[in-house]
Design goal:
It is a single chain. By secondary structure, the protein is mostly helical. It has 12 helices and no strands. It is globular, with a radius of gyration of 19 Å.
Length: 302
């Protein structure tokens, strides 16, 4: 189904803006902060206000990234009428390109202003993290060498929505770095990257035509399915190793999400249908949310 078929006159302006934020991707912003805060709480260092501001900044960066993707993919011709993913508000004509671009800039400006509080708490490391996060969010699809178009999108997500987000959240509360926070960031980054992998797997054909050389386009369908499996494997092996090392069964709580992970994995492994993969995309986002809650509970209760 093309995007044009998704865009119906019944969509209001408010609904269009909700679509532009891509709500199904927002767990990738919430979960890293949740897990980083849980690690801080386990160490007796949880601080509510820095945690809340970090959560808000993470959500704004995710939304800003989604708006940037919507705008720049349209400008570069990657979002055509042949795409099979969810509706894109610029390509479908729901919101003018300039409006999306201006709101994107406003979102990143607001993120920077809120981030100044975190800088006042955590100092120059947080300033560097914040500036790098905003720059990479823009050049993910913008500029002469956008990360998504040269096959670096997966690495960007793993680093910034995994390692940086979890360890940075811990730092603004504890004012120190933590090996536990770093380890906790790996499964979070893995499942966050898996969300992108499903998206790029679904769009292989249209991205190839648009010369958007995502990692999925570069390595092909079979290897992309393997990548998805490996990412989920990483997410479930790490808590098992933590449980064995510390002899604490509560680390195994994330394994309760495995039946849901198996359902989504079966779809990705067996289907190339756009509708089914849209469901797998939403399912992977839900998996991240469920996993993140269980993983955080393991830290706090242990």
């Amino acid at each position: 189904m093309s995007t044009a078929e998704h865009a119906t006159p019944s969509i209001t302006r408010a609904q269009a803006w909700i679509l532009a934020t891509r709500p199904k991707t927002l767990p990738a912003a919430v979960v890293p902060v949740l897990v980083g805060s849980a690690v801080a709480a386990a160490d007796g260092l949880f601080s509510l206000l820095p945690a809340l501001v970090a959560m808000l900044c993470a959500l704004l960066i995710q939304i800003g990234t989604n708006l940037a993707n919507d705008y720049f993919d349209y400008v570069k011709g990657a979002d055509s009428h042949d795409r099979i993913g969810p509706v894109r508000v610029v390509q479908s004509g729901l919101i003018p390109p300039a409006t999306v671009r201006n709101v994107m800039a406003g979102v990143f400006a607001l993120t920077f202003l809120l981030g100044l509080y975190l800088v006042s708490v955590g100092g120059w490391p947080i300033l560097l993290i914040g500036i790098a996060s905003i720059i990479c969010a823009v050049i993910y699809t913008a500029g002469p060498f956008p990360l998504a178009y040269v096959g670096l999108g997966d690495l960007f997500v793993f680093i910034f929505f995994g390692i940086v987000a979890v360890t940075g959240t811990y730092y603004v509360q504890a004012l120190s770095w933590s090996a536990d926070a770093f380890i906790a960031s790996l499964p979070v980054g893995a499942i966050s990257t898996a969300i992108l992998v499903v998206n790029n797997y679904r769009d292989i054909d249209t991205d190839r035509i648009a010369r958007k050389r995502t990692l999925a386009v570069r390595i092909g369908r079979r290897a992309t399915r393997i990548e998805y499996r490996v990412l989920l494997l990483v997410a479930y092996v790490i808590p098992v190793l933590q449980a064995l090392q510390q002899e604490e069964p509560l680390w195994l709580l994330p394994l309760l999400s495995m039946p849901f992970a198996w359902q989504v994995l079966r779809i990705v492994s067996r289907s190339t249908d756009g509708g089914a993969l849209n469901g797998a995309l939403a399912g992977t986002g839900k998996l991240l949310a469920i996993y993140g809650i269980l993983y955080s509970a393991g830290f706090i209760l242990s």
